[in-house]
Specification:
alpha/beta; five-stranded mixed β-sheet; binds S-adenosylmethionine
Length: 283
Amino acid sequence: MSNASGTLFVVATPIGNLQDLSPRAGAVLREVAVVAAEDTRHSRKLLQHLGATPRCLSLHRHNESRRTSELLALIEAGQSVALISDAGTPLISDPGSALVRAALDAGVPVVPVPGPSALSAALSVCGLATERFAFEGFLPARAAARRARLLELVNEPRTLVFFEAPHRIADCIAAMAQAFGLTRRALVARELTKVYETLQSAGLGELAASYAAGDAPARGEFVVVVEGNPQPAPATQLDAESVLRALLQELPPARAARLAARLTSSSRQQLYARALALAGEQE
Ligand code: SAM
C-alpha cells in the first residue's frame, strides 16, 4: 500500500430520520474529496444539509464494475472516498461490494462508519431470538419463485429477516403464512424512524388476515422478521419424501415404500400411506 493512498470510508446514512446520522459520519462526508452514491441527486440533499461539497460520482448496479476501477484509481492517487447508499448501510441489499472487495485486494485502507440499517433496526425491536438470524434480503418477485424460496426456509431454525416492497407486502405475508404456518410469530416493521413508523407483531395468520382485510397499511418501506422453526423436521424425513417420490416414478407404491424406508431408516407403514396418497394424486 502506498503512503500516499486515500481511504475508502463505508458510511451508513439515515433510513428516514436525519438525526440518526452520526457526528462521525457527518465529519467524514464533509472531509472526503469524493462521495460515491447510488443516486447522486438524492444524496446531494443530505450533503447540502451537512454543508459538505465533495465531488459526487454515481455507483449503482448498472455501472458498478466500471465505476469501481475509476474510484479505486482515485483512492490509490491519494483521494479519500466515502461510499454511501440512498439510505442505511451500503452493501446491505445495496451496491458497493465490488468496490470494497477491490479496495481490500489493492491493500488501501477500508474504514466502516457504522450507523442505521433497516436490518438492525427491525431486529432490535422484533422480540424474537436474535442470537442467530438469517438475512434473506428481498424475496423473488414472482409468486412461484417466492413460494419455492419460502419452502426452502421452512426448516430454518434461525430468525429470518426479509425486505419487502409495499406493492408486494400483502402477498408476501400471505405466502409466508401458507409456507410457515399460521401460528409462526412475525414482526412487520414499517417506515422505521419515520413519522408513520408502525410495528405489528403477531402470528403470520393474523398478520395475513389484517393485510387481506386492508386493515394494515400497505404503503411505505417494510422489513418482515419471522420466528425460526423451533422444531425443524429431521433431515431423514425430508430425504424419505424425496427418495419416495423418485422411487415412485419406477416402482409400485408397496415396493417404493419398502425401499425408501430401508434407505432412509424411516417407518415403512408411514411411507406406504404416503406412497398411496402420492400415487392417488398422479392418477
Ligand atoms: N442498505 C439499506 C439499509 O441498510 O437499511 C437497505 C437498502 S434496501 C435497497 C431498501 C429496503 O430496506 C426497503 O425496500 C425496505 O425493505 C428496507 N427499508 C429501508 N428503509 C426502511 C425503513 N425506514 N423502514 C422499513 N424498512 C426500510
